[in-house]
Amino acid sequence: MASTAWPKPDQRQLLGKRFDRLDGPAKASGTAKYTHDTNLPNMLFAKALWAPHGAAKVSGIDVSAAKAVNGVAQVWSVEPGTEVNYAGTLVAVVAASTEEIAREAVNKIKVEYEVLPHNVDDRDPAKVSGEPSKKEVPDAAGVDEAFKSAEVVSEGYYGASPITHCCLEAHGQAAEFRGGDLYVWATTQNVSGYAGSVTDAAGVPASQVHVECQYMGGGFGSKFGADQWGQICVQLAKQTGKPVKFMLDRDQELMIAGARPSVYGKVRVAAKKDGTVTGWDSDMLASGGKGGGKAPDMPYVFTGVPVIRNVSRGVPVNRGSQRAWRAPGHPQNCLITMSALEDMAAKLGMDALEFFMKNLQYTGRPDVYRDELTKAAEMIDYGSKAHPRGDPTAGPIKRGLGMALHQWGGGGHGSNCDLTVNPDGSVDAKIGTQDLGTGTRTVIGIVVAETLGIPLERVKVNIGSNAYPNDGASGGSTTVGGVSSSARDAATQALNIVLDKVTPELGVPVDRLVARDGKIFDADNPSKSMTWEKACSLLGQMPINTKGSKDPKDGTKLTESGVGGVQMADVSVDIETGVARINEMVAVQDCGLIVNLKTAESQVYGGMIMGITYALYEEAIYDPVTGRMLNPDMEFYKLAGLADVGKLKVHMMTGPGYDDRGVIGLGEPPVISPGAAISNAIANAIGVRVPIMPFTPDRVLAALGKGGAVA
Amino acid sequence: MPHGGKRKTGTGISRRSFLTTLGAGTVASGLIPGGKRGKAAAAEGSPGIVGPGEVSITLEINGKSQEVKVEPRVTLLDVLRNRLDLTGAKKVCDRGTCGACTVLLDGKAIYSCSLLAIEAQGHKITTIEGLGTPEQLSAMQAAFVHHDAQQCGFCTPGFVVACTAFVNAHANPTVEDIRAGLGGNLCRCGTYMGVTEAVLEAAKAMKGGA
Ligand code: FES
Ligand code: FES
Hints:
CATH superfamily of the largest domain in chain B: Beta-grasp domain
CATH topology of the largest domain in chain A: Aldehyde Oxidoreductase, domain 4
Number of domains of chain A: 3
Strand order of the largest sheet of chain A: 3-5-1-13-10-11-12
Order of helices and strands of chain B: HHEEHEEEHHHH
Distance between the termini of chain A: 71 Å
Strand content of chain B: 5-15%
Helix content of chain B: 25-40%
Radius of gyration of chain B: 17 Å
Mean pLDDT of chain A: 97
Largest interface: A-B, 63 and 69 residues
CATH topology of the largest domain in chain B: Ubiquitin-like (UB roll)
Distance between the termini of chain B: 35 Å
Number of domains of chain B: 3
Largest sheet of chain A: 7 strands, mixed
Oligomer: heterodimer
Largest sheet of chain B: 5 strands, mixed
Shape of chain A: flat
Structural class of chain A: alpha+beta
Bound molecules: FE2/S2 (inorganic) cluster
Number of strands of chain A: 29
CATH architecture of the largest domain in chain B: Roll
CATH architecture of the largest domain in chain A: 2-Layer Sandwich
Shape of chain B: elongated
Helix content of chain A: 25-40%
CATH class of the largest domain in chain B: Alpha Beta
């Protein structure tokens, strides 16, 4: 019997090698159809009107002029009396025969508001609401005593501004009723679970909702259910009897379709003169929308620091509410922890690498981090580039190095795979999952091909529909662990059925049979063999159907949880203009058994680039007077471009101690450290901490005004 | 205001530094010299003024002449996507910032969200669909696949078109040229490393006009 367990390193044929993504040609040729690309016969286009106030009550709304526009089919609007809690809230939606007509009609809608008081300031301690959450180890007296008797205490203020998801494919949906069933084309991280979010609007049970998402233009944690706009879309489709497509405009996308909460506050770190950290004391404000917020538990990674106090207060703000943003909470936590620790290293006059190394006993995986720090230092040439805080070089350009450590879970989510092996040898795998750009399709194909010993091209992978077996939502880096486990399970079961047919034919006991290179052969005498096609022809008329799950019946554990990574950044800062630029960044990451090295590396590069973006450029800026987001567009809500990312290097930790852990997801980990590493690099360059991220020129100059480098 | 500030290569000015210098919203792209209004204008009988109703226009797209009836306010991008089901070009910012809607107009990369369809008459329009097919990828498309210059892939068609125009104009680009010349396209997933590699590889393959 072939075993479900992952093959040993010397037996792997495809796992861990580099493969082009299966849907690469469709994407590169523009033929891949995204939700936004849905064109159905007689389809209506929907466009929305949004509330321009941070808080208001709709006192009157008149859509009659919009309804009168030729080509308008239906208008949805809020009831008078409705309260809006943040600018950007949808108050009316028009469905019309063309986008232009819908937009024109939206402009004719008249809304009267009673403007209410609002708050968009997330850094004002006076705006705190609710009880603070507090954690003290061992207890208040112990914490106070530890800081009183500490050899060295360093203090600082740190923070991360709110950002948005800015998926290039805006949120939205197309919907159509056919024969009483609802068909939706969604851009979602949760194909299998999406139906439940539209059943109320549709008035049909989930079993009659057909969800399709073959391609999606980014999600990053912001796209799970249908949201209000998806439900309005369904309602409009129901009322008009026509297909309706409703995608948010860019400004709406940036205002209401996802935000990463902000965190700001004071940290004190206590340490011995030799660099051993002895205490942590943080007092933070956190804000993720109307409900306030909670700062993550600090310190990050160095969770074993013996004395910890952690206070967090929520600041409710009238802004679009928070959504999971790639590695929720971690980038902010990493930024604040690593900055505060590095400030202590600088205060002690100690090299940052030596300081972090010295305190690894407080982390969950000291050996892994030691190896990763060593590797990253080698990749960035730390030895010859490092200098104490403040680049002593004359002139306006100051260069510095910084580093950060991160961690993530990433164990596989629940997953089910249906696998068919046909008598002609063709293979078909079905999983109700989705590919956010992470390469899920390709991962499934590789696992099935590896298991059956056939080329990747032989496997047809079907995903992106709720007609396929249920799979968990793609969140928290759980997809690859889940789908590779269920695919491995289903394929192993199928292989064992094939092997049972081959055994009598070849006269070889089943335990000696190996499937590899498109053949099934005797491990002791490889010349006794049969092609995969011949073996499958022994099935007669009937294809094999197997069902695999994330937790195989034989008890094999195929996925694990818990990864660590290290990143280092080399930056140059112009102290006259305040502009910080990346020269180079390196990432060292483990993620258990790698399925496709090419797309795994892409994930890490992508994480670093997204990290550079939030470290230096992107920020949702709000106007305190109107409560409106000031930059809901891509000119001022800035993403890094090709010229902004410097030279990037990635190293994946593989080999004993890593691959034997099973498959672990990789979506979140690499996006966590960049902000912290860049912050530390900037401080190392200019001699002073820039407290708030993103580290824009104005903030860099303001920090320099308080000390630091001299040109 | 300089026209076509996008992809002005050789000046050493990337889109971002350009924006930083001049303030945002200033990069005028999709502005083409001598946009023709001829046919639609003639139909209205009043020179230079058309609409507001639908007019019939003829566009030459991927070597094929296509007649569509559109209101003059409709952008080339919306004609391609909504009327002709050529959905490779994407709508992301709809205001000339991100490059997702890039197509070729007489071989030059333009933002199709920032050009009215009526102005595209008389020009040769090439969309991503006109460069290659999944079965027969162009050299640039194949290089994008090979270097994994795509994750979610939503920016990819715009990038492929922009890179194609870039390499046609710069046969031997260096990494610095690529950084300076391809700042007009944005990717959220972070595929710039792959894009850079893909352009270098495709530039080699495209020599000789492939
Ligand atoms: S959609 Fe045209 S430039 Fe962004
Ligand atoms: S690949 Fe997703 S936006 Fe570029």
